[in-house]
Specification:
The complex is a heterodimer of chains A (about 525) and B (about 150). With about 525 residues, chain A is an all-alpha fold. Chain A has one domain. Chain A has 18 helices and two strands. In chain A, β1 and β2 form a beta hairpin. Chain A is globular, with a radius of gyration of 22 Å. Chain B folds into two domains: about 70 residues, no CATH class; about 70 residues, no CATH class. Chain B has six helices and no strands. The chains are: A mainly alpha (about 525), B mainly alpha (about 150). At the A-B interface, α8, α9, α15, α16 and α17 of A face α1, α2, α4, α5 and α6 of B.
Amino acid sequence: MLETLALMGSGFANALSPVNLFAMAAGTAIGIVIGCLPGLSAAMGVALLLPMTFSMEASTGLIVLGAIYCGAIFGGSISAILIHTPGTPASAATAIEGYQMTLQGRAGKALGVSCFSSFCGGLLSCISLYFFAPLLAQLAMKFGSPEYFWLSIFGLTIIAGVSSKSMIKGLMSGALGLLLSTIGMDPMEGVKRFMFGQSSLYEGINVTCALIGLFSMSQAMILAEKKIRQRARAAKFQDKIGVTGAEVKRLTPTILRSWIIGNLIGILPGAGASIACFMGYNSARQFSKHKEEFGHGSIEGVAGSEAANNAVTGGSLIPMLTLGIPGESVTAVLMGGLIIQGLQPGPELFTKYAPMTYTFFAGFVLVQFFMLGIGILGCRGFAQISRLSDAILIPSVAVLCVVGSYAIHKNFVDVVIMMIFGVLGYFFRKFDLNPAAVVLALILGPLGEKGLRRSLMLSGGNPAVLFSTPICWVLMVMCIFGVLSPVFMARMEKKTVENAGGDMPGETGDDPVRTSD
Amino acid sequence: MKKTDIGVVGFMYGVCILFLVMTLRLKKAAQTYPLFIITLLALLTTLYVYNMVKDAKRLGVTSGLEEVFGETLPGQFVPVMAMIVGYLLAMYYIGFYPSTLIFMVACLWFLKVPKWQVVVSTLAIVCLVYAAFAMFLGVKLPVGLLFK
């Protein structure tokens, strides 16, 4: 206990260094800009800026990525409130009440409530990150090769969960990703596999190149194929952004409920901020003493949605950091960032690398304060950025993808691999296959392969070793849950969206309402 | 069932065949795991084919092209993609900065961005890349074959 407190204290001391503070401010601002641009998603932003963290210390790099993640989730609410266009799907429910407030000349108040609720949701989610992550990591210390095999299988069953339309297509995408993860040197036999004569594929496909291609380049292609439309002019607002004491008192129960909802959804693999925002909004309406305000600009509606989607951030990091199971696209990209720094998610992060991990946790707490400050001071400016045309985004994103993938090993092969994955990601999105599943499989494939082959080697080829411990059986049950949970999640999402009276959000911040000037 | 899904299924079977051929060239001990994954992908694809056939009997067959490419503007998409490919080739021969300048200006001009925004956006991207990658990360961006 004392040791944990000491780690927490030293984490804060490290996180407060000038470099880390600058990283938090810059990452949060970049994240808010990405979030408020309706064409860009949080996962895409994190993937695009991943190469920038290569030369940083591991904790600083992770703080930057975490800040972009939090900033993007909040940033989506700015365009949702001001131009009725959610910057990310996570803010779809915010648009319902937020835009009504804008029409009534209360845009400043809506932004203030959104900022305050996002701050509270994010900050409270750090509590579970601090307390649950080490507990889960202790459990993971008991894992051997068979358990790691089942753990990777469990991670792969989540693929079905992150699949948007068809579970089988999600699993097909995952299987294709597994096949692609076999490219490179065989870990047990030392044989070159499927390298197409390219020595740069010796260590397999570079996950960062794949991430940039699948999430960022493919998004530039999606934007390039559609008609370039002008976004609505952001509403100018004169009212105060601040939140009064009476409003804080009124919003507190809503924020607390949304925190619990968001946190649980974040920890659950396969669910994400886009579900949490509708569930938070729905519970705010259900328990409100001012139900008549809903649909006409309720501050509780904005708070319920925003506190819930930001509470997802801390929760979603728990399975990723402790078990190496990223439950959704953004955490898969964050895990890529962790691997790039030479760190493997799991118990080692809480033993050998504990100072780094606790610095990241402390940074994650401080990021919430930066989000509050930058959000309140800069929301008028961010409102104008949210109108940036897709015509400017297309070549800009393409250039950043190319230079980002080149920077990894300073060779053109990585750029070509990024482009191949970009085209793959484009067609995957067009045909309802799942790019996130490919990424998860690329990350978890080698882990599962090593776990399986090592277990069989140690047992002399006897597959019974895979069922030899109670943890193996627990993980097997979780795999079954992983396969069945999407059906349950889809029903729950449909029901909450119907109850909220909203539309299902698009995958990458597709905007439901775009109007001309 | 959508006819476009036939393309998806064809692609998946194609990948299976390609990897199967390459796997059979590996030594015996190294074949097991890839064969397992190939079988898994083939089985899932076959399961999807079964669902497609079931849907075709129940709901009929639609083209699916309108749904998938209905919003696509070939007159815009194809030239932008050609410019991206041209940009990569140009970077290889004339280096990063000249090719980026040409690509940004050409692409923004083609997408009918106002002139002042073309200038500002191009300069902003070049300066951002220089500051972030060349100065901060110390990445030597390609100078191109012609200037080596």
